[in-house]
Amino acid sequence: MRAGRWMQLSAALLLGGCRLLGGGRGTGDEEPRPAPILTLHVENQNFYDATLFALARSGEQQRLGVVTGNSQGTFTFRWQQDELRVIIRLLAGGSTATDPIMVNPGDSLNLIITPDLHFKIPGE
Question: Which of 12, 15, 30, 90 is in the most buried spot, having the most CB atoms within 10 Å?
Answer without folding.
Answer: 90
